[in-house]
Give the backbone structure.
Amino acid sequence: MTTTRFVLCFSLCLVLVPAVLRGNPTTDPSVRLHSVQANFTQEKHLKILVRPLVSSGVFAFQAPQSLRWEYLRPVHSLLLMHNGRIQKMIEQDGRFEQDNGAGIDSMQIVLQDIGNWLDGRFTDNPMFQVTRSDDRTIVLTPKEPGLQSIISRIELHQGQEAGVMETVTIFEGPDAFTRLTFTQTVLNREIPEARFTGQ
Amino acid sequence: MIQHLLLCLTATLLLSSCALARREPLPKLVQAPGATQSLQQCTALFPQGRWQLVHAIAFRMSNGSSGNAIGVLVLDDLEIKCALMTVEGLTLFEARSADEEDLEILRALPPFANREFAAGLMRDVRTLFRPPPGAAQSGTLPDGTPICRYAYGHAVTDILPQEDGCWRMHTYSEQTSLRTDGCLPADPRREQLKTRTIKAQSCSPVASAIFPHSLELIGSGPTGYTLNLRLISAERLPAR
């Protein structure tokens, strides 16, 4: 059950990135986004780690609900969301295999609830309390104690350019966090559907 | 006819389930000259000093469930620290342990949040990356294969060095022996039976140690499991 929730929480964090990038259409239509693509570097910090574990990959999002989240190294894996369908794959011996681990079914249910986020309406979210620590930083704190035991807070830091996310940091607890840094962001370029279906 | 088929099918299933539980007994050790050199060769298969290792782990349980994880290991002279995380990087389990009696769970999400899982995981980690404890002997198996044998209480570990610099390992513990069809006999007795088989492949030197790029651990018996570890990185850490 918690593993399901765990996978689910992380998928929400992934969806947050394009959600924030889209901005709030009611107050700032100029930063409303149709699509976003970027490279990312992920640093995993743990108390036991002498050096952080570094991963890297690419992601693509297109409104309303299409997402491709791909780790290229150290383990090649792929998360695809399109038309309410979610696929998770991992490369084994040079070819992709479906990863049918816990959480995929629940993620499909949760996808229905993230419409508000994708429209930039963070305050409507029942799972997180949303605050702004400064003009460019949004802090999401889980409302439910069960969720707090998995993720203590998420900080989303916007870059100088409107609508461009610079870093997302997921705090699991003291001395344990995952920081995603985004580079080479491309906004509003049409992305072929095949990118989200794995075809 | 259908009844006959069902009967055959049931018998086959019963037999195969017994066969699944069947474990191999400890083979006889044949003493051989050059024992000291072989023992040194076996001890050298395990890293010395401080290391940070990262593995991609694929696991498969006997009930058919499977999954993937990233395993992080910090080997110290005194203790082992380990973490299991999803491929996306969130921590499922984190613990440290100095020995069998010392285990501190730093973080664990269900279904990993139980001491039995943590102790089993640390036992596997120690088996894979630490020289076995106990009195050591070297020799050969009856078929002539060279081995190092370590006996610790009722537990026995056999290390079979391979010509390519890699190794195989078998662990045994005292259990109730089964009939040749794998079922429980009328007069059960205790003997040392195989619990795990480990195969190290594609070994190559990193700094002062030799690391297998691929490790396969198969736990025997009805609650068996298979772990496949692929080495992502091995980094020597400065001495304290």
